[in-house]
Amino acid sequence: MATEPSPTTSAPSPPFDSTELAEIESEAASRIDAAADIEALEEAERLAVGKRSRFALLYQQLRSFDPAVRKGGGQQLQELRRRLDEALERRRAALSAEERASRLLEDRLDLTEVMSSPLQGHLHVVTQVREELEDVFVGMGYEVAEGPEIESDWYNFEALNIPPDHPARSSVDTFFVDSGQAETLLLRTHTSPVQIHLLERGRLPIYAVVPGRVYRRDTPDATHLPVFHQLEGLVVDRGVSFGDLAGTIETFVPAIFGASVRSRLRPGYFPFTEPSAEFEISCAICDGSGCRTCSGTGWIELGGCGMVHPAVFEQTGVDPEEWSGFAFGFGIDRLAIMRHGIADLRLLVENDVRFLEQF
Ligand code: PHE
To answer: Which atom of ligand 1 is nearest to the CA of 276?
Structure first.
């Protein structure tokens, strides 16, 4: 049995019970570690080493000790105090790092956030197709010309060999302008009057395309609009033949629709061309096998064309013995909806952004 060392021996053993010290330490340490913020940590510090703490009580006891053991006790308490201070400091550092991190997190700008950007528009699908058509013809050496949308009866009809009682007039219902003038004014029903303006200009030869808005008193439906767009073509030169017309159509159709779309001419009638033809393209929807869009025929009519009628040349002072030419005209809107497989012309003018932004 070991003899307990007597307090009076020359090497006095430390006066404080090491289990109690360990208990004080572990109790304080767990409070310190559990402190969730600086205030809680200050509270833990107060409880661990403050005036009313068990630690402070031990310190007071120290004074009553015999000087011989007081030194050992002082060392014990200093050692404990050092470890508690260390634990407090560690926790303080951890808490302030945490606090800093969470402040940074709060202040952080989320640069990945999706901001609504200003809406950006683009050209209307009809304008896009019109510009593409212009590019194709400019590439073939044509100029792009324009004419007025309000025309006289003479330009829109008479000069084009459509006299007042001609049945061709009744095929287009017309918007007349009440001008109060003797001359009858109207919204042009086609771009063909620009043929007359170009011929009157007197500069030959002519290779021109004329895009523009035209007006007819039609009730809107899937294939008609009262305001739509045409592209007119006029070529006048020496020795121009019907073969040149056919070749021109065969060149521009695949340039617009792609190589798989074919074109054909069928006999037609227009007062200002002779002979006249209607030109058709193979249906892009069914590739010519027949479907609803092409009414089962495999072909879709695109426009009219023909050789410039001698009467038109005579109206404008061009000698038909010296010059010959061809003209064609078709609806840009119809061409645009065929190009894009759009079912209804009216969609083009409803201004629904969800529709327009697709093209
Ligand atoms: N202007 C005719 C129409 O609107 C089309 C056409 C133009 C026909 C040129 C022949 C020559 O239907």
So the answer is: 10
